[in-house]
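#struct-pred
JK: can someone run the complex with shikimate-3-phosphate? inputs below
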Amino acid sequence: MSGGARDWIAAARQPLRGRIRVPGDKSVSHRAVMLGALAEGSTEIHGFLEGEDTRATAAIFEQLGVRIEAPAATGRIVHGVGLHGLRGSGQALDCGNAGTGMRLLAGVLAGQAFDSVLVGDASLSKRPMRRITEPLALMGARIDTGAQGVPPLHIRGGALRGIDYDLPVASAQVKSALLLAGLYASGWTTVREPHPTRDYTERMLAAFGWPIEYAPGHARLEGGHRLRATRIDVPADFSSAAFFLVAASVVPGSELHIDAVGMNPRRTGLLQALRLMGADIREENPREQGGEPVADLVVRHAVLRGIEVPEALVPDMIDEFPALFIAAACADGRTVVRGAAELRVKESDRIATMAAGLRALGVAIEETPDGAVIEGRAGKGVLFDRGEVDSHGDHRIAMSFAIAAQLARGEVRIRDTANVATSFPGFETLATRTGMTLKPA
Ligand code: S3P
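RT: done, structure tokens with the ligand placed:
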């Protein structure tokens, strides 16, 4: 998708040092565009993620008749058309690589007076959509998928009714799709989760003036209200900061400051896991920004030890496992991950992709259906062999192996890295500025 290099060459260089800021939160940026588009009035978004995923969502709303201005990089003004102001597009709506974009949009589009087709790239076209189409069908939605329940989604818009639904998997995307459909439904939509997930949809609906009841693991709203434009300040994405938290933890001599990172507790499970492993990460200047907790993080190198990752942390660090696997490989002793089968249906099968890459760099790792057992290499001198790993077009895998390479015996070639631009534009430049060695192959 991006014009960037497809492969990287990364190598060991020096400690990570300095003060950085990572781009805006992907989850918040998607939702800000969506709710801004459906609101009455103009919503200002500050700190918008200029990634391919979130730009794809903005482009789709433009295709549906919403005017969106970009007065500055990371700024957007979304001129909302109101709940019923979208216009159907004769063309397919391309979500690119973004599962969040597609699943949340399906909820919005199911309740429209027009039909839509949602398509995605090769990775998204393999991802499971029945988790949303089945509960949306209970609401009266008519959505056809490809064989095996994968995209494209052919959505015939129409009347919806509220449901009371227990999510079988902890998924903020599924929860959000149902809540967004619930805006258009008659009566109440209630969603319960087996474990609380990120609550940005709930918080943002409230900020846009929609009455909603929510608590961890539970949300409930009634159709037929209005969204009123507001200002959204997007915090820096904890999931992007995560790569630097791990990199500075494992590279000896590092001390890195990461400013104004979003600290929503449903996102910061990795911080807890790393601390259990012995990481030295300090939170400074905790404060609120646009209704979200943020803090400056200071991370110093520390000797990590292997742990059994508490299963209760899994949903709060679901996007951070590729980085955690690298930390585990650098630790002293064994790390065990369980209860994380969802990793198999992310942008790639993250258990299989990480296992293949780690093995290629000399790390002993055993895959299990819902996790992995990783033998840490601390005490074995050089932590990773030189070699070649394939990210399978998965942004988070590519960035994770760039960290591993900083501790390798020689150069590591990382294949298929262009999709890093979906979530972290400028990663290469920022990583290089901290002291990492990373260049296009
Ligand atoms: C997201 C929810 C998570 C996460 C994804 C973003 C969101 O997905 O992995 O990167 O913004 O709601 P699931 O809901 O599939 O767990």
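RT: quick notes.
The chain has two domains: 8-24+235-440, 26-233.
The chain has 13 helices and 25 strands.
JK: thanks, will look after standup
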